[in-house]
Every structure is written in C-alpha cells, then in structure tokens.
C-alpha cells in the first residue's frame, strides 16, 4: 500500500513513513517532538537560562526503567507467588506504576477547566512606549508568550462548543518579570464585586443535587441568579448573542475587561482597557452547528487551533489599548471606568494597536503545559499597574490562592511552564516540591552574611513600583458607587448594535435557554429584565415561550449603537478555513486536483469526501489524491464551504442498517442521502456552496442550485475562485431567515 504523507492531526512524530506494522524490537531512544511542537523554555526554577536542550527535559535512554533509573526487564506481568499465586508486596515496579497512576490527576480549575494552549511571540510596535515604561511594548521587542484559551463552565472533558464565555489568558515572559493578561472574549463581566464570584459560579455550574447539566447555562439556577442580580444582564446578552459560540479560538477577540493603569518613563499615568483583535476577524458558528459539534467533534476548537499551527497558518492578534485620562473620578463620557459591566464603545475611544502576537508552536505535553500553567493577574511588570476596580481587586487574592490547592503547594511558580524568564531572587524558601537548590544562609533582609544579597532595586534599575495613586477620603463600608447602578442601558447598547440576523439569533438563544428552565417564576423574572433592555426582544422571547410580555419597569435611557460590536458587514482572510470537496463515481480527477490546488493556494485546507475510503478511494481518485473523509465520516460542521465536484449517487453503505444517518431506505433517490443531509445542513448554516460539472445536478436535485450563496464554475479551479468571492464575509448572511419582528429595534 502506498504510504500517505503526514497529515495535520496525525499522532506522534514517526516521520513521513509512519509507524511500522510490527512492534519495534530494536532498542532506540525516544522520538523528538513533532515539528510543530515546543515545550516550555529551559530556564531554571529561578529564571536563569540553563542551556539545556529541550529534549533533555523529556524521557531519555533506550530502555524502560523505574522512576529511579533502574532498567526493567518485564512490565507486562506482576511479581506473584507462581503463575497462579497471589501478588507479592515486594513488587516495587508494580506498586510504583499503579501508585503513580493513582495520582495522575490534579484538581481541575474551579472555573475555566477546559482549555487549549499554544506558544508564541509578542512583538511590540513601540506605540505604547509613550504611555508605559514596560519593556514588552518597546518597538520590535520580541517576548515569548504562552496562551491558554478556555470555556468557563464545563469540566475538563466537556465540549468546546458550549454556549459560554471563553477565557483568553496570556503569559508574557518578559525580561522584567512575567506579565499575565488574564482576559476573556467578552469585554464585560457578570458581577461588579469579586465577592459575588462564588455566587455566579455556583449558579451556572451543574445543579448540586444531580450534577447536571454539564457545561451549560440553560438551566434554572443560572437564570435564577442573573434575573435577580441584574448587573449580570449585559454579560448574559453577549453570551446569548453569537459571541457565546465562537467559530474558532483564532477568531475571537480578547479583552482585559478591567481598566488598568499604565505608567510612563516620566511617571505620568493613563488608564487603559486592553483589546486583542484577531487578524481573521470575529466569527461564530450557528446554534445548530454548536449542538452538532458537541456530539460529532467535542474537541472542535482545540483541534482547530492545533491543526492551524501545525499547518503553518499561525494565528495572530493585535494587542490594542483604549486610552483614557487618569482623572480623579475615573469616568469617561458618563461611564465609570471601574465598573467591569461597562464598555467604552470603540467609536468614542478607538483601539490603538501596540503590538502583534503570533502563535507558532503547539504544546508537546498537554499536562505539563496547558494543565499546569497558572495565570495570575498579580503578575505585573514595571509600567503596568492595576486600578481599584472591585472585581480586579478580588482577583488579586484568588489566583494565587487557588494554585496552592490545584498545583499542590506554594512552589507552583517553579513548574517549567510557569518559570519566569527573568532572574528570580525572592527569599521564598522550602515548601512542597521545591525544585530550586538555593544557596547561602541568609534568605532575609537586611543581612550581612550573604553579602547583603538580595538588594532592593534602586529607581535607575527598573523596580516595580506600586503607583502611589491617591485614595479619596472615605468611610469603611460594604457598598459600590452609585455610578454602578445602571444595569440595562449597555445591554441595550449591545443588542441595538447587532444586525437583524444577529438579533434573531440572540432572541432564539434566550428562548432556548429559558425554555429549558422548569420554573415559571424564573422565566417571568428574566422577561422583566428583557423588557427593560428592549421591549421587542422581550416580546419575541415571550412569544417563543408562550408567555405574556411584561412592560418595562424602568426608564432606561436611549443609546447610540456601536457598529464595531456586530460581526456582519466586513470581509476577512481565510487562513486555515476548510473546504469539503464531494466526489462520486464519475469524478474527473484532474478537475478535483485543480480544486484541491486552488483551495491550498488560498491558504485553506481541502478535505476530499469520497463514497468510501481505503483502496476504493485510491481506485476512484488515483494515487495522487487522497480522500480525507467519507460519506460515513464527514459532517457539515467541519466545512466552511462545500464544493460538489461530481455526481454523488447512493454509495453501497447508504442503508439505514449500515449508517444510521441515511434515514431513508437503501438505494432511494439519485443523491446519496448523507450528501443530501450534509448539503441541507451547510445550507442552513449559511455557508458558501459551489459545484461544477455533474455536481450542479446534485445541487439541482437537492433544491439549492439557484439559491443565495450558491455558485457554479466551469471546472475545479474556477468553482473555487467563485467560492472565494463569498467566503470572506464568513456567511451568506441573506440566507438566514428573519421575521421582521426585531428589524426596527
Ligand atoms: Fe477568573 N479565575 N476569576 N476571571 N479566570 C480563574 O484561576 C476569579 C474573572 C479568567 O487559563 C481561577 O487558575 C475570581 C474575570 C481566566 O488558566 C480562579 C473572579 C476574568 C481564567 C479565578 C474572576 C477572568 C480564570 C480558576 C472574580 C476576565 C483561566 C483557576 C473577581 C478578565 C486561566 C485559576 C487559565 C481562572 C478566580 C473573574 C478570567 C478560581 C475570584 C473578570 C481566563 O482563581
């Protein structure tokens, strides 16, 4: 059989020839990581370059050993008193192997348990150097980064496509210490004061009695909380909109949410909000897709990120800042900059780009890197400081605290992925899992026994200085400023900024989620909140639930929409997008090869879908073309566009008993029922569809040939060129049905 080239996502690094059929028996050392992979930098626990090659951090030698390096002869049988006798306590290898296995898991994160990480680099543009002394912003300064994207609610093994907020946490290993920008893909948060965090998390996590539902907000406790605690309405609106179901981590914005303070070389300060802008634009899947993905490929986002990096389609984001004067009241245009439930529209204060982040390497070990990475908003560097945002202030306690349990003690900073790339001389000593071997006798200050080391940093040597921001005379109390009281106008601002299609999706999401609640009081209370946000939205959701729509109870001010909040109306690059090419018995291999080449040239991934795989696919397509999917294994969700490249009559396994997706009796119709199903889904998902030759007949038979966003080409290359005119808009927006009920809002 001909050997296929390595394809993205294939496991391990056994080279182009793949693994041998027989179990290898000639002793050889461990294989290196795959070319797209990297591990943490090989610095010491105290941040100093060790010069150790990365592979020396991994397992070594040709032979199986104990954890202490003694070579072993047999790992398949435990030591027993004869072949039929009991196991012996003496069997160290058995006990070590099982005992270590018993302790392989660490507690998952309380929130953001499911994530995916990658290594990369951040390059400063120099544009922020006038407002911050942080070296990371200097022109052309390159800083290594590690990014972890995550969902918030679900457990570690939950689906990527839950309707949820996404974490967007970046660790910048700067020369001046590590800076962690621990943000989300939504610019506002559910609560204004950190003391409410356990409440919102308890409400959205599965119900404590049965521990269901997993990774979802569509249940009573969540809606109970957000309808009672109305400051959550703005964030919830973003979750119900398409932002809650991103197409890819590569296609999400990121936000620092809180207002931070930057300090310039001359000591002057500004307030800023951080934004990550993806080069590929902000895109979402449809709710139908999200549900299909959760069943068909729950690792969808994780796979997409890793495949893109492996294929060299490196994801990029520009970091930008909205800059505000550091005034005494910390307000801008009536918006309290310390209130994390508010945004400042980009139309009022534009986002100024300050640098570019490129993700270039996948992890080589998920546990060591993505699971053990520990972010901490306290990790700040000279020139970047916090403000008094009451949510941020609480986070400054939480992250350091949580790692002590999650990573088993106070030395989690010494885990390879968490090690700073700057010198560490901290006088922190001992504790569980201490891996530094500190020298000297005087981990205290002042001392004379270690020559006075470590010294306090004089101003000229760039110390981190807590900015001496004035604190207004006040009384000690449990209260928030009155400027935090408006809970509805920005939820309205967001909703009014959406296109009609996006508004419809949002109304459907509310209807779905509230429709999953059992308690009438909870639904009714949420409808009251919606009435204050937008009466037409409230009416649409109430109609969907079969309930009367309440009247607004508050006089919420009118708002000016922010067009930047909508995902519709612009065009974007297509790097790493996937195009399904459907083939059948009368396929022209030359034309399919031309289509594959055209997709490839456009920086996208062609996936040929054949009636069946293996030898049959080779007979159909020849040895130069490969079928990556079959009618059995393909599903609409992995394609951003579909090209029908030939006839697609029912394949031999188009029978209910062989593939339950078929849904009709064997041999019925002229088009394979799986192809029909796929085209129907792709049509509803408003993705571009193309055809050439006999493929046009397939589209005619399925009823889509003359529809919006359906193109025909004279051949494979031409058809792809036609698709390329549609795909940059992300969807064929006019294909989404609207009802007109939200058009005027
Ligand atoms: Fe977090 N958050 N958070 N959070 N958060 C955690 O820290 C917490 C908040 C965010 O990929 C935990 O290491 C409190 C806002 C991300 O490892 C924990 C409050 C924002 C991640 C924690 C917030 C975030 C976390 C769980 C209210 C956006 C994942 C494990 C004051 C700006 C980081 C851990 C990763 C993780 C606490 C609110 C983002 C428990 C108390 C607002 C991206 O410490």
From TrEMBL:
SUPFAM superfamilies: Class I glutamine amidotransferase-like, Heme-dependent catalase-like. The keyword Heme applies. Belongs to the catalase family. HPII subfamily. Its EC number is 1.11.1.6. The keyword Protein transport does not apply. Keywords: Heme, Hydrogen peroxide, Iron, Metal-binding, Oxidoreductase, Peroxidase. Pfam families: Catalase, Catalase-rel, Catalase_C. Residues 1-17, 39-53 have a biased composition (Polar residues). This is Catalase. It catalyses: 2 H2O2 = O2 + 2 H2O. Its cofactor is heme. Decomposes hydrogen peroxide into water and oxygen; serves to protect cells from the toxic effects of hydrogen peroxide. One of its GO terms (molecular function) is catalase activity. Residues 1-56 are annotated as: Disordered. SMART domains: Catalase (SM01060). Residues 65-453 form the Catalase core domain. It comes from Citricoccus nitrophenolicus. It comes from the Bacteria.
């Amino acid at each position: 059989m001909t050997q296929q080239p390595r394809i993205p996502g294939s496991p391990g690094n056994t080279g182009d020839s793949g693994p041998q059929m027989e179990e290898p028996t000639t002793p050889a050392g461990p294989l290196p990581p795959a070319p797209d992979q990297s591990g943490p930098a090989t610095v010491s626990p105290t941040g100093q370059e060790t010069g150790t090659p990365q592979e020396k951090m991994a397992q070594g030698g040709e032979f199986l050993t104990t954890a202490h390096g003694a070579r072993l002869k047999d790992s398949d049988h435990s030591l027993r008193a004869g072949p039929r006798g009991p196991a012996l306590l003496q069997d160290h290898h058995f006990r070590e192997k099982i005992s270590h296995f018993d302790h392989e898991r660490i507690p998952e994160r309380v929130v953001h348990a499911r994530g995916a990480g990658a290594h990369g680099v951040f390059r400063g543009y120099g544009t922020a150097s006038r407002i911050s002394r942080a070296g990371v912003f200097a022109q052309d300064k390159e800083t290594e980064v590690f990014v972890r994207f995550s969902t918030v609610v679900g457990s570690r093994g939950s689906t990527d496509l839950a309707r949820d907020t996404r974490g967007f946490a970046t660790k910048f290993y700067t020369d001046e210490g590590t800076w962690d920008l621990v943000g989300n893909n939504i610019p506002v948060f559910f609560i204004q004061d950190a003391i409410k965090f356990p409440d919102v998390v308890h409400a959205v996590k599965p119900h404590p009695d049965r521990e269901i539902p997993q990774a979802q907000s569509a249940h009573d406790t969540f809606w109970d909380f957000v309808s009672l605690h109305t400051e959550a309405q703005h964030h919830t609106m973003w979750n119900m909109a398409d932002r809650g179901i991103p197409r890819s981590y590569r296609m999400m914005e990121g936000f620092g949410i809180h207002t931070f303070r930057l300090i310039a070389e001359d000591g002057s300060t500004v307030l800023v909000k951080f934004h990550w802008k993806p080069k590929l634009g902000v895109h979402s899947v449809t709710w139908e897709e999200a549900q299909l993905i959760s069943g068909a490929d729950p690792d969808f986002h994780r796979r997409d990120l890793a495949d893109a990096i492996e294929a060299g389609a490196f994801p990029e984001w520009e970091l930008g800042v909205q800059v505000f004067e550091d005034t005494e009241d910390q307000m801008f245009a009536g918006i309290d900059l310390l209130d994390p439930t508010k945004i400042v529209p980009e139309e009022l204060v534009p986002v100024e780009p300050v640098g570019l982040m490129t993700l270039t390497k996948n992890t080589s070990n998920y546990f060591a890197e993505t699971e053990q990475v520990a972010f901490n908003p306290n990790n700040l560097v000279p020139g970047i400081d916090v403000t008094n945002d009451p949510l941020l202030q609480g986070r400054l306690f939480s992250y350091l605290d949580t790692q002590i349990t999650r990573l088993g003690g106070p030395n989690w900073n010494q885990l390879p992925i968490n090690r700073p790339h700057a010198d560490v001389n901290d006088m922190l000593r001992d504790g569980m899992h201490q891996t530094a071997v500190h020298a000297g006798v005087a981990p205290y200050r002042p001392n004379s026994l270690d020559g006075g080391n470590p010294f306090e940093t004089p101003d000229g040597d760039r110390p981190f200085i807590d900015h001496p921001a004035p604190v207004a005379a006040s009384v000690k109390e449990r209260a928030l400023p009155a400027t935090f009281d408006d809970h509805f106008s920005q939820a309205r601002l967001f909703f009014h900024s959406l296109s009609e299609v996006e508004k419809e999706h949002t109304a459907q999401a509310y209807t779905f989620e509230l429709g999953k609640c059992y308690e009438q009081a909870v639904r009714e209370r949420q409808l009251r909140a919606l009435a204050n946000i937008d009466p037409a939205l409230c009416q649409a959701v109430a109609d969907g639930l079969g309930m009367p729509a309440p009247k607004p109870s508050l006089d919420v001010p009118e708002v000016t929409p922010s067009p930047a909040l909508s995902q519709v109306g612009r065009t974007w690059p297509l790097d790493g997008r996937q195009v399904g090419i459907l083939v059948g018995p009368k396929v022209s291999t030359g034309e399919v090869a031309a289509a594959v080449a055209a997709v490839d040239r456009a920086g996208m991934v062609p996936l040929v879908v054949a009636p069946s795989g293996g030898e049959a696919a080779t007979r159909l397509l020849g040895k130069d073309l490969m079928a990556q999917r079959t009618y059995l294994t393909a599903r609409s969700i992995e394609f951003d566009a579909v090209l029908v490249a030939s006839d697609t009559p029912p394949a031999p396994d188009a029978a209910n008993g062989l593939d339950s997706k078929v849904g009709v009796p064997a041999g019925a119709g002229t088009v394979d029922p799986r192809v029909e199903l796929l085209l129907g889904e792709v049509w509803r998902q408003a993705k571009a569809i193309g055809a050439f030759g006999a493929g046009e007949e397939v589209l005619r038979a399925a009823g889509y040939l003359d529809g919006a966003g359906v193109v025909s080409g004279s051949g494979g290359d031409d058809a792809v060129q036609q698709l390329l005119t549609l795909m940059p808009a992300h969807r064929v927006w006019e294909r989404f049905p609207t009802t007109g009920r939200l058009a005027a809002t």
